[in-house]
Amino acid sequence: MLNRVILIGRLTADPELRYTNSGTAVASFTLAVDRMRSGQNGERQTDFINIVVWQKQAEVVAQYLQKGRMAAVDGRLQIRTYENRDGQKVRVAEVVAEGVRFLDRGEGGNSAKSTPAAPPVKNNTSPAPSKQPDFGPYDDPFADDLPPGFEEDLPF
Questions:
Q1: Which fold, 5-35+44-102?
Q2: pLDDT in tens, 87-96
């Protein structure tokens, strides 16, 4: 069985960074992803997909990504349920990111959010005790993942 999602899109808002009670960083954001084909009226259709990022990668995403930036997300689809304040069960679909790659550079300005893209990070890396964070080795989430001949089947 396989549960793998690869998305490329633009952030609809700045990532929201939080910490669990145990101190684990978790960031969430929504990625706007255009569909391959236009709708019946010829208009481009877009899906808005919730993304969750954990650990050190969550902190890096919150620091360097912002609304409008383009990113690639490699992860798995997760469906979870919870009970809201009214006692109703709510079902949520989201992508739990295993890798996030920044695909463009921030626009001018002096804030940390507008600096050039940071090196991509994979989850399960730990920071080195230095002034510059050690992002550890990065495996390109798109390398060698496609089956042979897959690209020949694409409609573009």
A1: OB fold (Dihydrolipoamide Acetyltransferase, E2P) (2.40.50)
A2: 999 999 999 9
